Amino acid sequence: MTLIKQLQAQDEFMGFYLLKELEVKQTNSTPAKDYFDIVLCDASGQLSAKFWDVSPTDKETFFPMGLVKVQGLVQTYREKLQVKINRIRKVTPEDGVAVKDFIRSAPLSPDNLIQTIHRVMDSITNDTIKRLVAFCVEKVEEKLQHYPAAKTHHHAYFAGLAYHIVRMLEIGEFICKQRPFLNEDLIKAGIILHDIAKPEEMIAQLGIVSDYSVQGKLLGHISMAANWITEAAIHHGIELQSDLVLGLQHIILSHHNLPEWGSPVLPQIPEAVALHYIDSMDAKLQMVEDALELTPETEPWTPMIRGLENKAIYRLNL
Amino acid sequence: MTLIKQLQAQDEFMGFYLLKELEVKQTNSTPAKDYFDIVLCDASGQLSAKFWDVSPTDKETFFPMGLVKVQGLVQTYREKLQVKINRIRKVTPEDGVAVKDFIRSAPLSPDNLIQTIHRVMDSITNDTIKRLVAFCVEKVEEKLQHYPAAKTHHHAYFAGLAYHIVRMLEIGEFICKQRPFLNEDLIKAGIILHDIAKPEEMIAQLGIVSDYSVQGKLLGHISMAANWITEAAIHHGIELQSDLVLGLQHIILSHHNLPEWGSPVLPQIPEAVALHYIDSMDAKLQMVEDALELTPETEPWTPMIRGLENKAIYRLNL
Amino acid sequence: MTLIKQLQAQDEFMGFYLLKELEVKQTNSTPAKDYFDIVLCDASGQLSAKFWDVSPTDKETFFPMGLVKVQGLVQTYREKLQVKINRIRKVTPEDGVAVKDFIRSAPLSPDNLIQTIHRVMDSITNDTIKRLVAFCVEKVEEKLQHYPAAKTHHHAYFAGLAYHIVRMLEIGEFICKQRPFLNEDLIKAGIILHDIAKPEEMIAQLGIVSDYSVQGKLLGHISMAANWITEAAIHHGIELQSDLVLGLQHIILSHHNLPEWGSPVLPQIPEAVALHYIDSMDAKLQMVEDALELTPETEPWTPMIRGLENKAIYRLNL
Amino acid sequence: MTLIKQLQAQDEFMGFYLLKELEVKQTNSTPAKDYFDIVLCDASGQLSAKFWDVSPTDKETFFPMGLVKVQGLVQTYREKLQVKINRIRKVTPEDGVAVKDFIRSAPLSPDNLIQTIHRVMDSITNDTIKRLVAFCVEKVEEKLQHYPAAKTHHHAYFAGLAYHIVRMLEIGEFICKQRPFLNEDLIKAGIILHDIAKPEEMIAQLGIVSDYSVQGKLLGHISMAANWITEAAIHHGIELQSDLVLGLQHIILSHHNLPEWGSPVLPQIPEAVALHYIDSMDAKLQMVEDALELTPETEPWTPMIRGLENKAIYRLNL
Amino acid sequence: MTLIKQLQAQDEFMGFYLLKELEVKQTNSTPAKDYFDIVLCDASGQLSAKFWDVSPTDKETFFPMGLVKVQGLVQTYREKLQVKINRIRKVTPEDGVAVKDFIRSAPLSPDNLIQTIHRVMDSITNDTIKRLVAFCVEKVEEKLQHYPAAKTHHHAYFAGLAYHIVRMLEIGEFICKQRPFLNEDLIKAGIILHDIAKPEEMIAQLGIVSDYSVQGKLLGHISMAANWITEAAIHHGIELQSDLVLGLQHIILSHHNLPEWGSPVLPQIPEAVALHYIDSMDAKLQMVEDALELTPETEPWTPMIRGLENKAIYRLNL
Amino acid sequence: MTLIKQLQAQDEFMGFYLLKELEVKQTNSTPAKDYFDIVLCDASGQLSAKFWDVSPTDKETFFPMGLVKVQGLVQTYREKLQVKINRIRKVTPEDGVAVKDFIRSAPLSPDNLIQTIHRVMDSITNDTIKRLVAFCVEKVEEKLQHYPAAKTHHHAYFAGLAYHIVRMLEIGEFICKQRPFLNEDLIKAGIILHDIAKPEEMIAQLGIVSDYSVQGKLLGHISMAANWITEAAIHHGIELQSDLVLGLQHIILSHHNLPEWGSPVLPQIPEAVALHYIDSMDAKLQMVEDALELTPETEPWTPMIRGLENKAIYRLNL
């Protein structure tokens, strides 16, 4: 079976793919005929495809996010590859394929990631901090298993958010060793909590964000997470105006650093400054790493990366 | 007794004033001598003053925010008026003067303002909204009697915040009549709540802000008020994710309109759009009105007003 | 007859509509065939449509801004509704329909609006101001009956400009009562004059702006209106450098507030500050109200609104 | 007699100077004594000075912009030179000195400059343009003899505005030869008119701006000049909406190029684009030339120049 | 033979053109058919064209940048002209046409331009400067014959860069005469060197830039040229830290003036200030001149010009 | 002996200090008397001081950067501490104190830091990179022993630059382990070279920058370092256009990330992206750490930190 990343112009191929998007359109011939405008994907990438001569049954058979077996031909359209589908059918249990094999995922398993997050949470020495963190994590425990960290910006894949957290925890552990004046409990808590409301801010399935929730649009994940701390503190009977509660809320509120990047306050405690740079470093380097991975090795330049000021990344020949 | 606004160069005068600021300084003569660098004020304005030849007793007698009787001479220094104090003593009960007569205040009495706010609160038809608003107002009930609305920007005087709210309520009432598609309950609630956390964000006495609180710096009044809604909803058992709670939090979070003005989200419900413009209109016009009032009528231009892009206001001769 | 706003996918329908846009295009079949790419509208909204198999006669029969009777089918194209026209013919006098019934209009009649504007003009107590205002209004008297206030931004419909003025006059009346230090004559004059040159800045028909005039591009409506004041003052023999003339010109020049929004000077008299906020409040709230009205009530979100920083407006469920 | 530019620390000197600024201040000794805080200047530069022990007669004798004979000593204060005045008296007719010899002036005489401007005006071939230009020039004919081009930015000296115009005319003549598609009449007119309202925007004496006029603040010289064109056209019976009138107004309105630099419209005719760059080039290079001239040749760096983004200019050693 | 600029809707025509762009596309009929999506150009302009029914031989015959003879029909598509090609063949030697006649070129011949540049180089009096300039020019001597000055911004045609340099040298000569304090050698050198690395920054053929080089993207032409000066100085044994080397590097580095326009340092010597304005004036006026030339004289407005803040240029009717 | 950080109002004290700044000023008494306006410092901080009644001998005895023994009294002036010096004398050899004990220094010894840098340089596996790095380091080998990393921004103390490099190398080592796709040689080289030209950009003594060099102002350390790579490559006969040379120059040029922060190009290779964030993280956290260290532990807030958007840092009470 051919991976999408390997398909080239003029290839005839057959294989299993995920119908990531499917739209029924009409040709402008008279009478107009229906066709499918499709995006096929697997874990290696995605490709647009057309299926002409759609029957009424087809329209009731194929839907987005379903697995299909496709036999097709790779053509070129507007300098891009595009598949002309000759035959297509739904996957049956006998095919023995699973949706999760066809989507991009974090390099580590969700279980592994969640375990790491819990291990770090358990290592927080201040009990009050630990309980506040636990309360918030519990709210999204299930979604943390599969949510991406963003719609397109970075870590936009299955379990991307948990992966982002785990990688940041690694940086956090290092930086606390390098600069012992930082409070390690706050760094750990800040990393786990900074994007904790994202699973409620965005609506995602299989690591793909389709939209923002009403709450996400009206409040934003930063204010949502600050609210959760309030909720957690009330739940556990912790003084709302204690420096500890203020500190955690401050770290969350300020982690985008500048107002124009979405933070209502600038970082004003050491751990908030640290968190912002740990977050940036991990997000930006992941964008670079992912872009390189999705670009065929024969290409010297990746596509432009929006999160890097629309610059492409170059592979040096050393 | 002469009002500060009326004093002119070369005037000899005597009267009661408030010691708004007092600093002990040393002359650079040898040996250095102590003197007081003072700001005297009454409700009509303020003036800097010097009291040379300070005795050790004086240093233990006079402090900022105390009332004094002063006999002095008005001089000119760097093109500004300045008082040379000849005699100064503390006010005694027999003098029959009260601090509140010497500070700038809202044109309406605190009681009157608070009553109006309560009356409007009572007129909110949606009970849940009413209870959420009441919970937040109760938190600052006492401070609302005297807090200013800002450090220097606008309504920076005794009961300035309550006055700002009451005037906005008048605009709100008008605009709801003009545009019935607006939800009047939300407009009322938004106006009362939008700056409700300011008394906890700032540290003020007699209508004068001396600093921001730790909480004010780390969270800001916008996020603080959003938290209070969470607290209020939990207290009253209201669903945290109901549109009503989200809506109120959204109105508060978005009322500065743009991120660079401090709002983490832009207005996305009609009442949030309305609130931003009601707030701006009242704040800006009050700045203009106050600047004109504090400027002698013989001056065609007020001083520059920071909140109006550092422009001065001109009195047209029509 | 079905309103455009009510049409749904798969509907077959017949009715009268306005051909808001019409372009002859060619299919890419060989030989290429002509078809019409059309925008149909009525007062409730607009919809794109295709008419395939266009005959040479058709091309000489149908033109933009003509009324037609259409029989068609609603299809879906790229997730949007689109009409496939089966039959189309021009309207005849017998059909008894008029263009004005098919376009969006201010909720009040032009006559009503113009009368209100004249009534307010007459109420200006300062005769010089009254004459200056009258001179400028007279220049665009006829166009004020139907011009929109902007190309797309706000009040972009038949008599939108007059409606914007009238609603601002209501706010102006309120604010002058609330803050008597404002000069009511200047507020009235400023409101009537601030956009008075727009009918010469833009080229519009039936409330729809097709382009800006040469004068509009080279000078802009703000400088044009300032020029008109000069003209009016010369006409009436009023001193060009009187505070009254300067004041009116200043209000006009500064009403966009910031240079980057098009004002060469910042507001520096109280009425100029007031006018800017009266204008903003009315324009922004009208954008919100119009967007909600054009959005089917089943949709919780309006489309994005350019004048509100590209945000959509949400209907809360209270 | 020693030029101010030549004075050095510890010099004792005597000479005639202009009292550019004079303020009566009080020492903080008790009793306080009056002294003069003075700025002395001549055409080579300026220096601050103190005159201690001022008598009541002195206060009625010395005023800003008067000529004086001074005997003094050069001291250092805060790393800057400062004169301690030992003796000072007013100039008498017998001294045979004139104010104009003590101020900075354009390198060419006002007569010479005005003649050039008139000669160029006469060379305009289009009679209508010529008459419009003449009308505006006539308004400020007298002030053009001595007004500076700006408060501090550039050409801030006696006849600086006329000098700026004349030098721009030289560039204009060159550029019209180099690029014959430019309309030379418009270039000439644009150069003469672009800052023509500055003498009414600013209040100046002897080439020194003390303030902006009310008109200057409320309208700005750009809109004022646009108004003058309207006035001129009405005066000469020229069609206000002719391309010629629009074109001239457009050139004036757009010559600051960007809104944030004060232009309500961007350049949209070739001559407007040209004018902006002719103006910038002359202003910026004059700032550089003047800064170098006022800096002692032994100094490698000039002071920072506000109009050049606060950069200093370096003298290369080639 | 008809020039492209002269073609009008419905014209049938035959002539020689350059295939500026050619892409093979497929129709969405079933089975899909190949067609050519083409851009035809000659020196007067360019036009898109379609050639339906492409044969396999055609696909091996026609390539971008080849000359062809075309017989076709001018149609309208989306309000723009578009050619329907009926017959097309490659040019043969017998046709006697050359590619260079079909592309836009500077108005002066490359030889002429290069000679002027060399003549000015020879006139540099400081030998060290002359040698540094010569070293850099030699690097791109050949490419200077035909490279454009930019991808689309300005002087985007055959020998556009050399033409830009020559025209700037004319301005430079004038300004040095007008302001003798400028060092003419530095002005000449700065003009010749400021964009000297552009031929290595961009990849161009026949005056058309297809992409930026790796070096161009990673360093940019400004830093590249600064490096070349280092190289030249080492080559000629000139002290790298001499003011002369620093000065030349500074002029190059600062010639975009502001950091956001690409200059790492602001101009800090007189010649660097001058160079920036000489460069801007020439580039902007050339944009205007070229836009007018490419716009049919019947059109009052040119298309929008990106380098002029997206404004169009208007032809006044004087 | 009392550390400056420990001095409090009213303290009488005696001790050794460094005269960091000294200016001779005059009182405004008549006759004016000289006094010293002084900044005293030791490694714990600095304090301003006055020495009245300066004798002519004193003026020839005391100079900035000299060590002195002082007996004085701590007073309060404008809410800040200030020393009144009663007696002062120069340090003699017998006092046994050394300048270096009185200045702020990196926490590690210069030798230690330089050794680490050399060790990492030696560990670079690519010989060409190693030789390019060595060439540049050699240029500033001596100054690297003591130069600060900036004038005031961060690491502004003795050996601050070397310390910054060493700490970044620690982060670099970690991040290369965490993300093996990064080229460790480039990361090491980039860290060592990114600020390598700072010792030639700034003029510093004892870790205190007094000014920028001419070269520093005209080129900036970023372009200077890029030039050094060119020089190094020529010296070692390495191809100037090899990806390796381009890559190193690119990392240096882009390390400030955005043009407005001084980088002419944006990061476009993975190591350039990484370097920017390693640099930011180290600089910002050091600012925080230093500010906390210089602030008495009793103070909850540090002074405002310019490099952190003028925010102060708060010590949470957990």
TrEMBL record, chains A, B, C, D, E, F:
<feature type="domain" description="HD/PDEase">
    <location>
        <begin position="157"/>
        <end position="293"/>
    </location>
</feature>
<dbReference type="Pfam" id="PF01966">
    <property type="entry name" value="HD"/>
</dbReference>
<keyword id="KW-0378">Hydrolase</keyword>
<dbReference type="InterPro" id="IPR003607">
    <property type="entry name" value="HD/PDEase_dom"/>
</dbReference>
<dbReference type="InterPro" id="IPR006674">
    <property type="entry name" value="HD_domain"/>
</dbReference>
<dbReference type="GO" id="GO:0031125">
    <property type="term" value="P:rRNA 3'-end processing"/>
</dbReference>
<dbReference type="InterPro" id="IPR012340">
    <property type="entry name" value="NA-bd_OB-fold"/>
</dbReference>
<dbReference type="GO" id="GO:0016787">
    <property type="term" value="F:hydrolase activity"/>
</dbReference>
<protein>
    <submittedName>
        <fullName>HD domain-containing protein</fullName>
    </submittedName>
</protein>
<dbReference type="InterPro" id="IPR050798">
    <property type="entry name" value="YhaM_exoribonuc/phosphodiest"/>
</dbReference>
